[in-house]
Task: inverse folding
């Protein structure tokens, strides 16, 4: 029983981290109707910027204050993501207002390759470290209740808390602020939003910037866990079943979807994996998402789309 | 109409001139031995592929700086695979037409894909420390050269090392050893040997695959925690290795009970884990980190200090840099050996280089003279043994550096030979290959 609970907790914490990446997909889709395939590349790009700026700032400060170096790096990486948002809006999206979803998806595929290439060219392709002081050693709990106790990874626990906090803030942003409401209006209909005076170009820059900041936070957390290197871009693949399951337009959906996928893949790998040779967790997550889609094609929390014929 | 004819004539003469120039260039190049360089400086494994490629190219430059191979200069061209098999095959097809006489695919997947192409194109494949383990049998795998060691050698030595730590092979009985492996042809390669050893010594083998690229291993390490193996063998590559070490730390598995293969024992695997990887050991493909070796110093003096270095200077001598450098050296020595038979100072063909690789005899004196003293032990191949050496050491990460932690081990030839012959004969039957006899080898 103890091991089952440990697997469950591990899955929940992994799920929160997937949610963080999934949020980036949801934010951009919710606000602009674009399925942003470049979200993984944005995580990599932001994490590379953070890691290198932190390294350079730390060096410039003589290694005296890691906290200050990290703060400088965070601001620097945030500005880089602002630049990315502006470039994407100015040179890509502005020309494509009201285009088909498939066209916009293909454009984000292109942005993926550009960001991956430029990121590695500018910042390097080695493994870089982000040290934000996350504890690495585990803590053993409930030893008197369960044999062998329950092992909790403190780093994952803190990361899950940060992800939860970010989700809460973003929910408030969307529901309670004028900018958030404008973002939702743009998502519903570009032209209608323009006709009532919502500045589409500025809104797009804002939404890509917010997604960029989410990517930066995800990059810091994942980068701190894995080291900053190219594989961070593949983390997005872990978040795809989450958005399929949770619905592309729902922030709570990204969270619940993440938790279900996280728990589902860990339990499947641990309990079903050994019967079929293991290594099933990646595709099992997609199978799980597809099963849900059989019953709710719009995802758990997605909006039902009804088009007039 | 007249203008058209004039334009056509001008175009034709331009083509004619271009052809002349091209053929002249080709003739000029005929005095150069062309080495294709299959690399991955991008993609999920770039951090590991980069140092290997830099070491490989720097060694080719070093040979040129010393006058080439008996006067024959080396030319080379890189081709990027991003560790993808399809791109590797594309690179092979593109570069074989440029006069390639030896390929080093740097991927077990690409090696599998090229093994049937190499005999047709008559180009040898050097797969130092990777590839198909049964390709040691040169009577069947005429064009494959898994020089220095195969994964069966690695797996065998890993078990020997565990047994030594436990106090003898008999102490393995009842123990549990987990193999955490990259779920790919590379990661699966050691399984047959480990299963054979498990049968022989009575230990339990737990197989735990990790999906590419290996960034998510929580479930794997939960199983490690549940099954509580005595040792974990790590057969990873790239980010999978550092992630495994971090997960081991997060689940409290002792790092000094983890032994990696030689592709899981370099600086990028532990650098960002730091003290968390302290005590972790890995096999070496003979060499470890060798910044003080003569050959590394030669590279600094004759290549980097002349502004010709391929990568960062402080990388020279690192583990994967040395792996690339030694791989290049093996190719160069194959050509040099071939020249002994077919003519010094001449450019060798693929078939001639194959003969050179099959008759390689790098004794200690030669190696020491080339700057590899303390780095390598002798390599002697034959028609029936395309591996040439099965010496392995173990090195351990002390939190800042790799340090040797064992004396030399040698794989159990008796065990290996039987397995290699069984597997290669099976392959020969499937592919309708008639193995060469010792008499045919002499021809």
Result:
């Amino acid at each position: 029983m103890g091991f089952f609970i440990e697997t469950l907790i591990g899955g929940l914490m992994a799920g929160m981290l997937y949610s963080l990446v999934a949020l980036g997909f949801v934010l951009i889709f919710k606000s602009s109707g674009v399925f942003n395939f470049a979200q993984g590349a944005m995580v990599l790009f932001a994490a590379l910027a953070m890691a290198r700026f932190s390294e350079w700032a730390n060096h410039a400060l003589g290694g005296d204050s890691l906290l200050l170096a990290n703060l400088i790096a965070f601001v620097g990486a945030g500005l880089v993501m602002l630049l990315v948002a502006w470039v994407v809006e100015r040179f890509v999206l502005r020309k494509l207002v009201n285009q088909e979803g498939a066209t916009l998806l293909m454009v984000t595929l292109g942005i993926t390759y550009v960001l991956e290439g430029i990121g590695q060219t500018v910042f390097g392709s080695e493994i870089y470290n982000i040290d934000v002081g996350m504890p690495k050693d585990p803590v053993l709990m409930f030893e008197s209740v369960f044999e062998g106790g329950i092992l909790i990874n403190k780093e994952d626990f803190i990361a899950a808390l940060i992800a939860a906090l970010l989700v809460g803030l973003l929910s408030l942003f969307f529901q309670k602020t004028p900018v958030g409401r404008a973002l939702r209006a743009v998502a519903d209909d570009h032209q209608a939003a323009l006709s009532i005076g919502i500045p589409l170009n500025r809104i797009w820059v804002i939404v890509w910037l917010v997604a960029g900041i989410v990517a930066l936070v995800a990059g810091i957390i994942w980068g701190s866990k894995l080291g900053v290197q190219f594989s961070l871009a593949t983390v997005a693949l872990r978040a795809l079943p989450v958005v399929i399951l949770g619905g592309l337009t729902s922030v709570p959906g990204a969270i619940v979807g993440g938790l279900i996928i996280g728990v589902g893949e860990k339990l499947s790998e641990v309990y079903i994996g050994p019967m079929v040779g293991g290594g099933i967790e990646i595709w099992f997550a997609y199978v799980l998402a597809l099963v849900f889609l059989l019953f709710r094609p719009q995802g758990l929390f997605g909006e039902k789309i009804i088009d007039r014929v | 109409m007249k203008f058209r004819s004039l334009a056509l004539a001008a175009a034709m003469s331009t083509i004619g001139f271009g052809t002349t120039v091209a053929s002249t260039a080709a003739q000029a190049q005929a005095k150069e031995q062309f080495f294709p360089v299959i690399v991955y400086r991008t993609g999920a494994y770039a951090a590991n592929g980069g140092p290997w490629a830099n070491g490989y190219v720097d060694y080719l430059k070093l040979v040129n700086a010393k006058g080439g191979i008996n006067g024959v200069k080396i030319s080379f061209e890189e081709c990027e695979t991003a560790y993808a098999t399809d791109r590797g095959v594309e690179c092979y097809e593109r570069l074989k037409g440029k006069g390639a006489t030896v390929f080093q695919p740097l991927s077990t997947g690409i090696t599998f894909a090229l093994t049937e192409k190499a005999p047709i194109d008559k180009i040898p494949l050097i797969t130092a420390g990777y590839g198909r383990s049964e390709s040691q049998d040169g009577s069947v795998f005429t064009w494959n050269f898994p020089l220095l060691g195969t994964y069966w050698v690695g797996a065998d030595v890993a078990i020997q090392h565990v047994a030594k730590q436990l106090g003898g092979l008999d102490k393995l009985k009842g123990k549990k050893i987990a193999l955490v492996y990259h779920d790919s042809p590379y990661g699966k390669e050691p399984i047959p040997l480990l299963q054979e050893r498990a049968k022989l010594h009575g230990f339990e083998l737990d197989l735990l695959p990790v999906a590419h690229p290996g960034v998510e291993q929580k479930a794997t390490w939960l199983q490690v925690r549940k099954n509580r193996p005595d040792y974990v063998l790590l057969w990873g590559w790239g980010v999978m290795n550092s992630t495994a070490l971090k997960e081991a730390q997060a689940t409290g598995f002792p790092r000094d009970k983890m032994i990696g293969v030689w592709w899981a024992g370099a600086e990028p695997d532990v650098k960002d884990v730091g003290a968390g990887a302290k005590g972790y050991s890995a096999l070496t493909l003979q060499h470890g980190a060798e910044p003080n070796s003569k050959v590394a110093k030669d590279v600094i003096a004759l290549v980097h200090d002349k502004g010709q270095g391929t990568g960062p200077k402080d990388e020279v001598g690192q583990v994967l840099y040395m792996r690339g450098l030694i791989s290049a050296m093996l190719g160069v020595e194959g050509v040099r050996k071939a020249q002994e038979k077919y003519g010094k100072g001449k450019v060798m063909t693929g078939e001639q280089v194959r003969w050179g690789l099959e008759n390689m005899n790098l004794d200690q004196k030669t190696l020491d003279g080339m700057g590899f003293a303390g780095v390598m032990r002798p390599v002697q191949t034959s028609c029936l043994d395309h591996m040439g050496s099965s010496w392995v050491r173990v090195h351990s990460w002390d939190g800042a550096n790799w340090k040797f932690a064992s004396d030399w081990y040698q794989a159990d030839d008796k065990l290996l030979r039987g397995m290699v012959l069984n597997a290669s004969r099976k392959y020969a039957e499937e592919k309708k290959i008639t193995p060469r006899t010792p008499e045919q080898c002499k021809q």
User: Anything to note?
Assistant: The mean pLDDT of chain B is 91. The longest helix of chain B spans residues 2-29. The radius of gyration of chain B is 23 Å.
